[in-house]
Each structure stands twice: as structure tokens, then as C-alpha cells.
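Reviewers of the previous submission asked for a worked example of the structure-prediction workflow described in the proposal, so we include one complete record here. The input consisted solely of the amino acid sequence. No template or homolog information was supplied to the procedure at any stage.
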Amino acid sequence: MVQQTIDAYGSIDILVLNAGISMWAEFEKIEDISFFNTLMAVNYTGSVNCVHAALPELKKSDGKITAITTAQALIGFPHHSGYAASKHALHGFLETLDIELEDKVRFLNVYLGWIKGTNLRQSAFGADGSIIGEKRHEHNSNAIDLEDCTRSIVLAIKSDKKRVYIPKKIKLIPYLNIFAKNWLWRKILKNVRDHDSD
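From that input alone, the workflow returned the following C-alpha cells.
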């Protein structure tokens, strides 16, 4: 795919890591954890493979790697243990590359909250290892519309930002996790449980 892109366009200016699959289940209620392998293969290893293939071309073009990731890359998240772990892994991988490459390639991390208008929820794994499908948990009023989300991502790419948080309040998570951890964890747990009752 990288070579086909070079043949067609001459260079690769940006690599967008956007593939993802999620889950919605308390860990102790999961019957078979083998779907964790799929979470890691899609959310982490898939991105690593793409970066490895495209990196030489990105260095030539002073290109950018844009990771469409999640607030769950910054903090653990109830009912999403395997998903959060895969996103933590990707976050650590890209941060390491950012250090190693010394600005030869630019990086943008897009940390998302809940976004309406995608198929992430209905494609998520449930506790029995099957895809949730129409049993998915509905979004509440805190979710962001897909068009607004996309517009913010494009603006961040054009502005050469290093990170963007959608919605903006997500940027508080690392600080709250240090200075108000108990409050933050209770709030996250309540939010997830509110979605469970929908």
C-alpha cells in the first residue's frame, strides 16, 4: 500500500492511524479473553506495521503521523480494560518514536471522548466475546458529533499541533489523575454506569 501511494502521488505526507475496535464489558465477567488479541492486533500492532512501512517515506517528506486515539490512552477506563491497554501501548510506542526521531517526523495525537456517528460501539466486543451490534450502549448528550470532531482534527493537522483534545475538557485528565484521582475515578465510573442504564 505504501509503494502504491508512492507510485501514484510521489510521496507520503501524512499517515493517519485511525483503525480501531473497542469493547464494553467488566473484566471479571468476560468468558473468554481471546478477543484481547484482536484488540491489540487492530489498535496497536496494526498501527506499528503501518508506521514501520511508511516511516522512510515520511522522513523524506518531513511528514506527520496522526494518531486518532482516545482519552483511554491517558487513563484506565472501566468496561474497556483491553481497549484502554491497547491504546496505552500505542501511546507509548508513538511517544518513544517521537523522542528517537528528533523531529525528523512530526506527530499529532488526537485524544477523543465519545463521538457520535461512528460504528465503534456496535462493532465492540461484549463480555461473551461476540460483537455487541444493536445491543450497543447509546451516546448521551456529552458525545461529540462526528462532523465537529472531523473539523477539529483537520484544523489541528493544518495548525501543526502536537496534540488536540476533543472535547477540550479531556486535556484535564492527566492533571486530575494526579491531584484529584479519587474524584476523577468516581466520575468516570458513574459516567460508564449511566451509559449502561441507557
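The mean pLDDT is 93. We consider this example representative of the routine output the project will generate in years two and three.
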